[in-house]
Specification:
Layout: H1 41-52, E1 69-73, H2 77-85, E2 90-94, E3 101-104, E4 110-113, E5 116-120, E6 126-131, H3 132-138, H4 154-185, H5 193-222, E7 228-235, E8 241-247, E9 261-262, E10 265-266, E11 269-275, E12 280-287, H6 291-303, H7 306-316, E13 324-326, H8 328-333, H9 336-346, H10 350-369
Antiparallel strand pairs: 1-6, 2-5, 3-4, 7-12, 8-11, 8-13, 9-10, 11-12
């Protein structure tokens, strides 16, 4: 069924989530009376998202759930976060739980900016998406008492990929739930072209995420850990940051576009980067069925010099900095201008992020033209490896 990007079809399922057709459900329905707010719509949505994140367990064997839903860490608190936090017991990251700054623009618009701020090691990268029992068993192979990462361990690579994916899946599912809740309360306002465009994007992302979740779930139930292709890069130093993401990078190390969207469906990779005591690891994983999409990027990263690898990561990772955790020493080593630039990157979304991504592509392409490789030795403005 063809669906308009900006209009609702009478016969499609109602965006409120009732499973009834839109025409039979919320079409023409009056909005629930709510107190007017002077805050920008973006801020109101962010506040509602913070207040509405549901507690649930995403493990496929939910019949075995035990204990309360807990604040599960996407990056292990007792290994990765603690190493970054050190004796100070805090890290720096984008903190969506804090009230955003409202920055007025010359055209009269107000832009919300989420600051990079101190976060307790116990609270960094946490979401309420696993019960106590499943949080303990699902990630045991990489948790507190587990040995350091072993690049020959199929289970470790699988679990890191799953963790990066499932925490992003949870955020997308919650975003769709929150949209549905808003639509039930205010169906007229949420039928604007902008809101329907957001709804279509959320629908598409869930369409893209669900088959991946189905694969992970089947492998977890069978304890087989198959069907995942992982590119493992060892970094011969202890880095001062860590992060995870489930993304579709637009460019490879030479600035060539990666054709990751097939028949309107975007294919992503799970990315995790983290330090250990004497070295660090970069893991990039996709389904084996998607290997042909990212094989060239994986081979480039494996064969790149350490300077070229750092150059690429410094150019690309800040665009996905929502889930990057910085050590206090790294954050303080940056001057105020660099801190502001990093915060700017972290808050980019929509057309602005796409334009910045294009600029990054040009930068990578121009750097690749320098056959001497000396350009990669020069520090980028935002240097995560400082």
């Amino acid at each position: 069924m063809f669906l308009s990007k900006t209009k609702l079809k009478d016969s499609e399922p109602c965006p409120c989530g009732s499973n009834m057709n839109f025409q039979e459900c919320c079409k023409g329905k009056e909005s629930r009376k709510i107190n007017p707010s002077k805050k920008p719509v973006e801020v109101q949505i962010m506040e509602k998202m913070r207040a509405s994140m549901k507690k649930c367990c995403l493990h496929p064997e939910q019949e075995k759930c035990k204990g309360p839903i807990k604040e599960a860490h996407a990056l292990q608190n007792n290994k990765i976060i603690s190493l970054l936090a050190g004796s100070e017991r805090h890290v720096y990251m984008l903190n969506p739980k804090k009230q955003p700054l409202l920055i007025p623009l010359n055209n009269g618009e107000v832009v919300p900016i989420v600051e990079i701020s101190r976060v307790s090691a116990n609270d960094a990268t946490t979401e309420t998406c696993f019960c106590e029992y499943h949080d303990n068993i699902a990630f045991a192979v990489i948790e507190k008492d587990a040995p350091d990462f072993d690049e020959t361990s199929k289970e470790m690579k699988f679990v890191y990929a799953y963790k990066a994916f499932i925490f992003e899946y949870y955020k997308q599912r919650m975003a769709l739930d929150i949209f549905q809740s808003n639509f039930r309360d205010n169906p007229i306002a949420f039928q604007s072209p902008e809101m329907i465009g957001m709804y279509r994007m959320l629908q598409l992302k869930m369409q893209e995420f669900e088959p991946v979740k189905k694969h992970f779930d089947s492998q977890i139930i069978g304890k087989t850990f198959e069907g995942i292709e992982t590119c493992v890069i060892r970094i011969p130093e202890q880095i001062k940051f860590a992060g995870y993401a489930y993304i579709a990078p637009k460019y490879d190390t030479n600035g060539k576009k990666i054709k990751h969207t097939k028949k309107g469906i975007m294919h992503r990779i799970a990315v995790t980067i983290f330090p250990e005591t004497t070295q660090s690891w970069l893991l990039l994983s996709c389904l084996e069925s998607e290997k042909h999409i990212y094989e060239e990027l994986f081979n480039q990263l494996k064969s790149s010099s350490i300077d070229k690898l750092k150059f690429y990561l410094n150019m690309v990772l800040p665009l996905y900095s929502e889930n990057i955790v910085l050590s206090p020493s790294l954050w303080r080593a940056w001057d105020e201008e660099t801190q502001m630039a990093y915060t700017y990157y972290a808050n980019l979304h929509g057309p602005e992020a796409m334009r910045m991504e294009m600029c990054i592509g040009y930068g990578l392409k121009n750097a690749a033209k320098d056959k001497s490789g000396k350009v990669y030795e020069q520090a980028t403005k935002i240097n995560l490896f400082l």
